[in-house]
Amino acid sequence: MTTNPSDASEPGDPTLERWRLILGRPGEKTGQLGLEAARQDAALSWLYGRDPEQQGRGVRPDGNRGAGDDGSVVTTVDWINEVHTLFPQQTIERLERDALERYQIEDLVTDAAVLNRVEPNEALLRAVLRTKHLMNPEVLTAARRIVAEVVRRLVEALSTETRRAFGGSRTRHRSIHGRVRDLDIRQTIRRNLKHYDLEHRQLVIERPWFLARDERHLKPWQVILLVDQSGSMVDSVIHSAVTASCLWGLPGISTHLIAFDTAVVDLTRDVTDPVELLMKVQLGGGTDIASAVRYGVNLIHNPRRVLLVLISDLFEGGDPTELIAQLRDVVEEGGTAIALTALDTDARPVYDRAVAERLAEYGVHVGAMTPSHLVGFIADCLNR
């Protein structure tokens, strides 16, 4: 059923208020808002009223008005306090994300008062990493809290995937103790047939049986992550740090993390502290991918026991011929080379397709992955 805004005319009417909040100021003729809805409307207008496209259509053309029509200027601190009071958590996170990524309101990450109030999330983490060079010590302290909380959540989630991927291979040995994913259905049915209920035609499972897992005894492997830290790769930088942290210390694996733009920085010793690692990353600048690959190749001990992962959009600052030749050599010597054009939860890359196609021709694995998929891929490679 379609609702006509004119059907509701009393201030505070929920139907009227929903229409009014959708339409913004052009919908004022539908009637007056209640006090709280008027504050919500002002908060939305403060943010979305700065959209040139919407202003051109006459939608919310009042981006600087305050909570009310007195023309007062609302600061970012005022606005963030309002939205945390007026909206549910899901809406708050969407508003904060749009403020950062759509309208580049950097006050969200350069004002300590705002940072101490906002909810930590990945959008905020990206903004912190892009602007931390602008922060004074007080703001940096507040920003570090954001980085630490988001990284903690990411590490916690990926650690579960890592344990699962490296948790051991199945054997024929069976046990009455185990996890659902290791349930031996055939053995469970056979062992419990004596409990079959003829009257109700049901099999009663008195005792489930599971496939046990043996620990994997891995030969020494090197996993070398080379991460492009140009501004467009911020998501991949974050997830590379988290991935390296989760791989660190696994038996039989030596993990290296190298960041690069036009310079190459070995961050391996900071892998155990991804928060400190990310605070050291300097986003932006050009790219010299060949120099980074050369550095990574020089770290290789045994060419047949190396997994070299280049995480980059492949837009080389110079001639890509050397870059391609070095990765080709890694493959020809028996190593595994991967060129990831994105490493994040969306895995939606923008990359140099010509370079990617040439790498693929030489046996380099090329694609985009989520962190959990990369961990699974590494586990498969190391246990062939």
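Second entry:
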Amino acid sequence: MSDKKIVFAGPVSTRSGYGARSRDICNALIELGYDLKIVPLAWGSTPMNALDDVKDKEIIARLHNGNLETQPDIFIHCTIPNEFQTIGKYNIGITAGIETDNCAPEWIDGCNRMDLVLTSSEHSKRVFETIQYEKRDKRTNQVMSTIRCTKPVQVLFEGVDTTVFRKLKELDTESNIKKTLDAIPEKFAYLFVGHWLQGDLGHDRKDVGMLVNTFLSTFVNYPKNEKPALILKTSMAGFSLIEREAIENKINQIQEIIRDRGVAGEFPSIYLLYGDLSDSEINELYNHSKVKAMVSFAKGEGFGRPLLEFTTTGKPVITSNWSGPLDFLNADYSYLLPGSVNNVHESAVNNWIIKDSKWFTVNYAFAAKTLEQCFKSYSSALKRTSPHKDYTLSKFTLKNMKEKLQEYLENTNKNAIMQNEQPKKLVLPKLNKVTK
């Protein structure tokens, strides 16, 4: 039991990557015995029903929406850096970071408000530590100052929950996932998990469009009964009927583009798995016998949580050789696709993915050959990737993450906490809703 009082603010109740990260951190803090209060935040339009599970009762018991009676020893804010706020005597910002090679000046300013920044990957850490901006006088254009990160940045990886994500010998016969996938005729399916975000074809952050294009083009001329399938567990941040129709339209448009190239033949099947699945259902999806490999052409990841989860099955992971996943994907046990680092297309630019930044584009021809190789020689592929399960379980579990978090907390500057002592009555500032 620690005598340090901690307030944690983050989207703990949301169905989002930051929501899962928040729940992991909070559960770790509870297990470590800290006096913890949790301030729940929204995360864009993602559903806020993630605390319906019985296992989250300890988090629910610590939810706090009112003012604080005393200033916490440590305030932890889990969000994007420009939202970081300083409420505690010692303030820690936790963020997945950035998918590109650059970030907005506001993110650096946010990092500099904190005493410590914990990010999910070496990629994000490197960006925060190396980016610099010059402030110039508008009249003379002389450099007035340089904006750079002056606060310590460390990596706290996102550990996999081995009580949920684990290899299953067989699925429950009543499982909806089992029934759904048993009903498709194909015996071999690639799986993609992730949002289909803004951007023209070949320029959305997860590059789902070119994954679809490459898959269809690679297997269109295979015999009718010898084609693999592609399962897309995707959405556009929500689960509305309008969004589902928009995704279906994108797939149809890609098929038309391929046809315009003069390609004949019957396209392989693409199945859109849409809607809100629990973690246990996602694990059933990973473990279904027809799901043979996970594939992602992502242009950048702050971490890449589904890829880590999938490694617990020992099945092949095929993904981009860049950014966050390189921390936990062993190159000997996975398929890392080569490519090039290019400017972000204007259609993908937003408040976080900024103009003039760069990210990764896989070599689509190489990716097509890899998909084909995995399909034709699956036993060899499985032999290569099956050791990844033990590799993950030895290094990247929630237990490992909790131990690393405890190390950072125990090394917080006690003198800094004492020096920043504030009045005992503290009105909790309004925390902004993040719309990323």
